[in-house]
Amino acid sequence: MSAPFIRETMVCMNTAPFITATQLSKRYGATEALRGVDVTIHHGESVAIMGPSGSGKTTLMHVLSGIITPHSGSVQFQALNRPVELSTLNSEKRAKLRLQHIGFVFQEGLLMPELTALENVAVALMLSGVPRPAAESTAAGWLHALGLEGMEDRRPGQLSGGQAQRVAIARAQVNNPQIVFADEPTGALDSATSDQVLSALLDSTSGRGAPLVVVTHDEAVAARCSRIVRLQDGRLVHDSATSGALPEGHNAGGGR
Ligand code: ADP
Questions:
Q1: Cα 118 to middle of ligand 1, angstroms
Q2: Which residue among 49, 59, 232 is best mutated to probe the pocket of ligand 1, counting the most ligand atoms within 8 A of its Cβ?
Q3: How many domains does the chain have?
Q4: What ligand 1 atom has the least distance to the C-alpha of 34?
């Protein structure tokens, strides 16, 4: 299982935060989805974002990854060890940054139903300009590493939920992204399968030294992450890195 994880290792000894977000606010009409959130994400850590439904978890993930822009606040992202302020990038540049530096895993995998497992993974590389034979060879390595040897030619409809989600993890990792975001990656799975898929996600990300950010409502998933932050009503109210609930009016997401 370790071959691609080690082969592509980009373990970074940089101790500066990988993402530094300060005073993030985001509104949808009258709804304040984020209210002055400060959070830092470091190399090598796995961070669970928890909180009740509607507390702002997905909004925070989308702001940190540049999918949406906040109304105020700053997100500094260490792309290729150079800090990039996401608010200075237009949507095209943010899309390029996501393609090159960020891996995503969603609850339902979002695989393309007409493509095989191998093609679903290889296409992520081909979009970055890698020729098809090389892309398929690297994709096959990831599928093998994730225990999917022999399933390369199956279409998503011919895979179990756990297998499909491991294909989605392979697709998220194949570009060797500097950070991986996962939104309820095990939400559609039973608990035993969830555990296996989470192991695959944690191992494949930490094996490359990349941070992993997981939005989850599942305490069992969060317990396996190195850090838990909790949101409530758009505010960061708890960060296990700073041991315990943050005092009233204090909204900082700390380091290690
Ligand atoms: P969570 O992921 O914790 O369930 P979200 O970040 O999805 O929370 O949503 C936070 C708040 O923002 C909720 O009240 C939600 O209804 C609102 N919201 C999120 N996205 C949109 C949107 N695109 N349009 C309007 N309201 C939204």
A1: 34
A2: 59
A3: 1
A4: 10
83 contact partners, CB below 8 Å, separation of at least 6 = 20, 76, 77
Q: Would you say residue 145 lies in a domain? A: yes
DSSP reduced 3-state for 118: helix
Residue 256 forms part of a structural domain: no
Within a domain: 54: yes
- The CATH number for 137's domain is 3.40.50.300
CB 205 within 8 A of CB 8: no
Look at residue 180 in the predicted model and tell me its pLDDT.
Answer: 95
Q: What is the DSSP letter of 246?
A: P
Q: What would the pLDDT profile of 74-124 be if each residue is shown by its tens digit?
A: 999 987 778 899 989 999 999 999 988 999 998 776 899 999 999 999 999
Strand 82-85 and strand 72-79: the pairing is: antiparallel
Domain membership of residue 197 (yes or no) is yes
Whether the predicted pLDDT of 236 surpasses 50: yes
38: closest CA among 255, 219, 256?
A: 255
Give the separation between CA 192 and CA 247, rounded to whole angstroms: 37
Give 96's contacts (C-beta < 8 A, 6+ positions apart). none
Q: How far is residue 217's CA from residue 224's CA, in Å, rounded to a whole number?
A: 13
Helix, strand, coil percentages (3-state) for the chain, rounded to 5, are 35, 25, 40
Nearest CA to ligand 1 atom 15: 54
| Domain extent at residue 229 | 3-245
pLDDT digits (tens, 9 = 90+) for 22-65: 999 999 999 999 999 999 999 989 999 999 999 999 999 999 99
